[in-house]
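A.,

Following up on our hallway conversation. Structure tokens first:
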């Protein structure tokens, strides 16, 4: 067993409770413990938040303790409603870009390894066709590598395009 897991009591309750995480974030940011609105909306692409901000209907919720998102508050049917915009956009783009590159690199490496193994096996069985097999293998490897390059381009777009400020 790994040394880090030797003294781990898996039946003990987790110390990462939502209330404890919120309390610590509020302490670090110097925020008062204020209740968020009882109704909150998740706006994944930020269109609703953008419109509410432009019309002046939404105001930032200053006591929001989250590090990666912002909460705006507006009134709907005489009730205070919270809305978190761009929850799947820019704040999480670094995570998505990193995961996409890791996945693309790993799968492209696996595909290239299988392609090279198959090509070497084919050249061993048919030495006379080695030149044609090698040419096809190199073209195939370039196409496989292009998939990783496409993922890199998408990752760069995720990192450097800011949907809402």
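Then the amino acids I'd put at each of the 165 positions:
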């Amino acid at each position: 067993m790994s040394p880090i897991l030797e003294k781990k009591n898996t039946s003990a309750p987790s110390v990462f409770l939502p209330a404890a995480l919120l309390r610590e974030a509020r302490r670090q940011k110097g925020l008062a413990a204020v209740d968020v609105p009882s109704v909150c909306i998740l706006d994944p692409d930020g269109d609703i938040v953008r419109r509410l901000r432009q019309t002046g209907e939404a105001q930032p919720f200053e006591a929001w303790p989250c590090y990666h998102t912002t909460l705006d508050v507006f009134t709907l049917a005489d009730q205070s409603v919270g809305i978190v915009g761009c929850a799947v956009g820019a704040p999480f783009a670094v995570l998505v870009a990193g995961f996409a590159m890791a996945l693309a690199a790993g799968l492209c490496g696996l595909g290239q390894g299988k392609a090279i193994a198959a090509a070497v096996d084919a050249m061993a069985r048919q030495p006379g066709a080695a030149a044609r097999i090698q040419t096809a293998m190199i073209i195939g490897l370039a196409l496989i590598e292009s998939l990783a390059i496409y993922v890199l381009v998408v990752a760069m777009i995720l990192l450097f395009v800011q949907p809402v400020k």
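Residues 18-88 form one domain. Curious whether your intuition agrees with the design.

B.
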